[in-house]
Specification:
alpha+beta, 12 helices, 7-stranded antiparallel sheet, 380 residues
Amino acid sequence: MQKIFFSLVILVLFAATSCTKSKGANTPPDMNQQDIAAIDNAVKAFMATYNIPGTSIAITKDDKLVYVKSYGIISATDNTPINNNHLFRIASVSKPITAVGIMKLLEANQLTLDSKVFGTGSILGSDYPSTQLAAVSDLTVRHLLHHTSNAWPNDGNDPMFKQPTYNFSQLISWTLNNYNAAVTRGVYKYSNFGYCLLGRIIEKLSGKSYEQFIKDEVLTPSGISNMSIGGSTLAERKPNEVVYTGQGGFSPYVYNVPRMDAHGGWIGSATDLARFLVRVNGVSGKADILQPSTITTMITRSVPSSRYACGWGVNDAGNWWHTGGIPGTATEIIRTNNGFTWVILCNSRNTSSNFDTALDGLLWPFVQDSATPWQNIDQF
């Protein structure tokens, strides 16, 4: 993913800035967030350009939640205003959450990155009957985390979007039987199915459902209580969840979302995801839920040209990120090398070729500009 850095001159500073400076060094900061008009205008312009009904953002600086705001409405047909508590499908932003779950098992010595997935002495063994297990006997946890299995890519034939009535067991056996996985490992091909398998590894080793393990070991320790695996249909919409608006003729309510759990099934708010980010980002503001050495393992690539480590896009500048997108949903989380993280959640996804670049570039100008008037507040 190419990060585009912008320069931006902030023309308007808040009058309250000078008042804050006059209070004295020991005066607690004002906890009332002040609008940053340039950010608000940029988000609103992005929404207008790409027909996005509602968006939530959350920005942290040095592990403090310094800006959180929601814009627009529940859906294209519901004028209820979005607020900061609304939940969104986060799609593939679920993958970093799954990766952190695997890192917790790594710390508990329940696996290594080189643990085998299938076959004799492996994690999943022969749990999923198939005539093709020999073809995947060399597959490791590292291959799945790094998308370097060289099998089951996210293309028009992605197995995760086939056989929608199959449960996990049926889908995995069917995929092993019908997709050629006897290929050279170590080649980067983004794979939703690989992360589905990671979810099953978590279940096998923990003895819990994937969702419950992640809640117990990742979300609750991060101070998150409202995230869950989403439903598939509009009738299965969770309390306080937005409504998704498809574009380009694509329906957002035709996917088996619970079966997407480990690769794309979570719902949450922007603040929820900001809480997650500051607990795994290696910054010394709030205590991380992973050991420093584990974080290093998590963000180290086995195929440097892929720009993907364990559940995160990474680059040589020290930035980490992940995007997510299915019809009706567009999301991104970013952790920068200068102490910022941010979250963008949208309840629609435009089909134009420049949409993803526009989403990625939306908030970079403000975290790159030293004139942006961030307050010394923490809204967590």
